[in-house]
Amino acid sequence: MEKIQKITYQELTKERINDFETSFVIEPLMRGYANTMGTVIRRTLLSSITSIAPFAIKINNVQHEFETIVGIREDVINLIANIRQIHFTYKPELFAKENLAKISFKSNKEGIIQASDIQEINGLEIINKDQYICTIAKGGSLEFDLFLREGRGFIDFEENKSIIEMYGPKLESKIKVGQFLAIDSDFSPIMLCNFIKEDLNTASPKEVERLKITIKTNGTIDAKSAMKEAAEIIVAHFKIIGNVDELESLKVFEENQKKQEKVAMVSIPIERLNLTIRSLNALKRSKYNTVDELLKLTEEELSNIKNLGKKSIEDIAEKLRNWKEKHQDQNQENESNLGEGE
């Protein structure tokens, strides 16, 4: 099998907004691979990342979704639409046994009700606590039981009706008057996902490309974790097709090329140095994001970085020395192997 030039994968720190909105690049890719990989990754991100969402609700004294509730500004349809916008992080073990969780809410407090007014249960956390739910008038009240499950993609309320029937008596509620109402479930935590293909100008006679992927999540999962989960789903499918137990057994990429080692060094983020959080934050605030950028600094330039104490500077210098020695040894080994091959 002819070897393929080894690729690198990294976050574009200059375009990073936060943990939940950022961009990644994969390069160099053979001609046509950027669009192929971009399409697969994007579709997987949008359709297949696991999360939780409400699928049923029981509201006190409500028999169907077209009713109004005395003392509540919103009708049932708008009330449910607001509740559906609440985003949760969760511990997977909470859903391991029955894939079901319930949140109960009851209030007669006059005024605006937000997600922060809902009492969380152990294993669940509301991310957007400022999400508006409804406004209760004087003398009004609101009581409901909200049922959540784990899933992927989007499931409409018609399909959720059959899921309510499937759970049956497991949907326990102390609300005596009211019906279980099925609601749309949007499990996807990905709010935006785009990709673009860029041609790379290199000395190689082969045309190569770069794939840039931009992701924005709803805050329940960080972008890096979403990319990791998407990759695991894709790889799991192709491992079955290729009947492969370990991907390392497929020697697809070229090895022991000095030029590639240097390129990879440039793109390695400073997080790989295992620095303290304080040192890491100080370096990033001063726009130092890669190992290569730090290696170019003199000791005086390093000591002039704001918010770095003497101990932090000594730690960074030592980590850089160890890193440099390690990669010098690797390069010497690669040169030796190349010489033997010749």
UniProtKB/TrEMBL annotation:
EC number of the protein: 2.7.7.6
GO molecular function: DNA-directed RNA polymerase activity
Segments forming domain DNA-directed RNA polymerase RpoA/D/Rpb3-type: 21-244
Catalyses which reaction(s): RNA(n) + a ribonucleoside 5'-triphosphate = RNA(n+1) + diphosphate
Region of interest (Alpha N-terminal domain (alpha-NTD)), residue spans: 1-246
UniProt family annotation: Belongs to the RNA polymerase alpha chain family.
Protein name: DNA-directed RNA polymerase subunit alpha
Organism per entry: Metamycoplasma faucium
Lineage: Bacteria, Bacillati, Mycoplasmatota, Mycoplasmoidales, Metamycoplasmataceae
Gene (UniProt): rpoA
